[in-house]
């Protein structure tokens, strides 16, 4: 980057201040002209001359964009004046004023016809930072972040404004003037706001059609559909409590199956052959079982099952098997007392006493076996 020492800082500062004042005057002038043009556009709409009104609206839109671009350039000029010491004392371009300098150099050829001070500002900045830098900034070929503001590029663009924006201007102008106006439906179809409003629920006429309750349609058909609500019920319509699932219906009679079961299982499904409550005969205590008609499913217990136990008598002692008298190993010769019956338990006296002689004899026999 070449450095030129011929920059006239006082001239640059003076033209920056003049440019700010001229930009303010242009902003005020163009805003007043736009307000007057709105009245003319309203007259065109009232006289059914929408095509001419749209052309005038494009002029207003371009003037509004130009006013916004002037506001940005005014801000950049004010920033350079506030940090003018960075231009005087530093030879290279400081990051604090890089964005403002680049945007002013880029916009100078485009607004020089309205603001002549920008030509002088552009020449002084080119002398300060070099022709190569100025040419790259004018063509927006510098590397990021030294780029021209995309907002400024859009405001000073020569492209025609979008048709949707023109229709919105027409709607607002007709609304402010109190004139009925029907926008072009082909253009408004692209409007995202209009499309979103059409998706809203009309609570005044038809009520809310919420689909919060889903019922099982059929055990064979796995599809679900929302319940149909009566008309004019409002958004708070409550369809009633949920019916019990199909798996709980006649669970002791027909078996039942969930509504979410696969169709193949539902088609081949038959109730299991389990005993029901009405198959039990209270008098005999036996269970009557229907024959199993589904070979793919388990059958019921055998018909010769044990009878149901009667009421248990808590006064009688249950019968337990007696332990074996002979045990393998070194306890083969040892004998154990047999289990006492209920009659022996009732009889007390000497039978409860221990026989010490018998215990001593057994102990001697064990000692002799261990000695061998």
Automatic annotation (TrEMBL):
Function: ESCRT-III-like protein involved in cytokinesis, nuclear envelope reassembly and endosomal tubulation. Is required for efficient abscission during cytokinesis. Involved in recruiting VPS4A and/or VPS4B to the midbody of dividing cells. During late anaphase, involved in nuclear envelope reassembly and mitotic spindle disassembly together with the ESCRT-III complex: IST1 acts by mediating the recruitment of SPAST to the nuclear membrane, leading to microtubule severing. Recruited to the reforming nuclear envelope (NE) during anaphase by LEMD2.
Residue span of region Disordered: 222-242, 285-356
Comp. bias regions, Polar residues: 285-296, 335-349
Location in the cell: Cytoplasm, Cytoskeleton, Microtubule organizing center, Centrosome; Cytoplasmic vesicle; Midbody; Nucleus envelope
Family: Belongs to the IST1 family.
Stretches with biased composition (Low complexity): 222-239
Superkingdom of this protein's organism: Eukaryota
Name of the protein in question: IST1 homolog
GO BP term (any one): cell division
Keyword terms of this UniProt record: Cell cycle, Cell division, Cytoplasm, Cytoplasmic vesicle, Cytoskeleton, Nucleus, Phosphoprotein
An annotated GO cellular component: cytoplasmic vesicle
Summary of subunit composition and partner proteins: Interacts with CHMP1A, CHMP1B, VPS4A and VTA1. Interacts with SPAST, STAMBP, and USP8. May interact with VPS37B. May associate with the ESCRT-I complex. Interacts with MITD1, in competition with VSP4. Interacts with SPART (via MIT domain); leading to the recruitment of SPART to midbodies. Interacts with SPAST.
Main subcellular location of this protein, as a coarse class: cytoplasm
């Amino acid at each position: 980057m070449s450095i030129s020492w011929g920059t006239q800082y006082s001239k640059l500062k003076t033209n920056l201040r003049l440019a700010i004042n001229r930009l303010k005057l242009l902003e005020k002038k163009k805003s007043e002209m736009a307000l007057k043009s709105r009245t003319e556009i309203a007259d065109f709409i009232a006289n059914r001359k929408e095509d001419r009104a749209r052309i005038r609206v494009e002029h207003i839109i371009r003037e509004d964009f130009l006013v916004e671009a002037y506001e940005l350039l005014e801000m950049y000029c004010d920033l350079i004046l506030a940090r003018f010491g960075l231009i005087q004392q530093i030879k290279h371009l400081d990051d604090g004023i890089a964005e403002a300098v680049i945007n002013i150099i880029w916009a100078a050829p485009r607004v020089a016809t309205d603001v002549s001070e920008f030509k002088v500002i552009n020449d002084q900045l080119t002398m300060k930072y070099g022709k190569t830098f100025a040419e790259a900034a004018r063509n927006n070929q510098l590397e990021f972040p030294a780029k021209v503001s995309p907002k400024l590029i859009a405001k000073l663009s020569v492209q025609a404004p979008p048709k949707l924006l023109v229709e919105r201007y027409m709607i607002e102008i007709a609304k402010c003037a109190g004139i009925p106006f029907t926008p072009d439906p082909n253009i408004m179809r692209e409007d995202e706001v209009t499309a979103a409003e059409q998706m809203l629920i009309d609570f005044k006429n038809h009520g809310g059609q919420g689909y919060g309750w889903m019922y099982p349609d059929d055990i064979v058909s796995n599809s679900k559909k929302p319940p149909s609500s009566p008309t004019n019920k409002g958004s708070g319509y409550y369809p009633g409590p949920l019916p019990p699932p199909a798996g709980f219906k006649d669970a002791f009679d027909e078996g039942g199956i969930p509504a979410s079961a696969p169709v193949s299982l539902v088609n081949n499904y038959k109730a299991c052959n389990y005993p029901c409550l009405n198959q039990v005969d209270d008098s005999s205590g036996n269970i009557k079982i229907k024959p199993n008609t589904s070979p793919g499913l388990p059958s019921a217990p055998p018909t010769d099952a044990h009878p149901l136990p009667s009421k248990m008598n808590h006064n009688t002692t249950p019968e337990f098997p007696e332990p074996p008298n002979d045990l393998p190993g070194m306890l083969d010769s040892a004998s154990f007392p047999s289990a006492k019956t209920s009659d022996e338990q009732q009889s007390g006296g000497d039978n409860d006493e221990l026989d010490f002689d018998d215990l001593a004899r057994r102990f001697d026999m064990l000692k002799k076996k261990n000695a061998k």
